[in-house]
Specification:
four-stranded antiparallel sheet; 51% strand
């Protein structure tokens, strides 16, 4: 499956952005989908994930501010980000993990497919 992330940009503190991830090649209905981010000098971390049956996970740092969703008909995954903070600044990546593969959705090494990343910059 090929993934294409978009929607990043520059926004002020408190603003909102909606990231989109377009999948092609395979239907995402059989995949866990995740949004990760990586800030300069830091490890890539899981921000949010959604299972094939729409169970969601959020990192504590984004709970209540970010919402992950999926549209299996359009083969799309979204990350709605509200109340953005400067510490949200990072490159955001979408990723896919087959439900048939081993490993937890929590770990980045469990994901076999990655998009190219989109930059999110939150100014203070």
């Amino acid at each position: 499956v090929q993934l294409q992330a978009s929607g990043g940009g520059l926004v002020q503190t408190g603003g909102s952005l909606r990231l989109s991830c377009a999948a092609s090649g395979r239907a995402i209905s059989s995949y866990y989908m995740g949004w990760f981010r990586q800030a300069p000098g830091k490890e890539r971390e899981l921000v949010a994930a959604i299972s094939s049956d729409d169970m969601t996970y959020y990192a504590d740092s984004v709970k209540g501010r970010f919402t992950i969703s999926r549209d299996n008909v359009k083969n799309m995954v979204y990350l709605q980000m509200n109340s953005l903070k400067p510490e949200d600044t990072a490159v955001y990546y979408c990723a896919a993990k087959s439900i048939y593969s081993s490993g937890s959705y929590y770990y980045k090494f469990s994901y076999g497919y990655w998009g190219q990343g989109t930059q999110v910059t939150v100014s203070s």
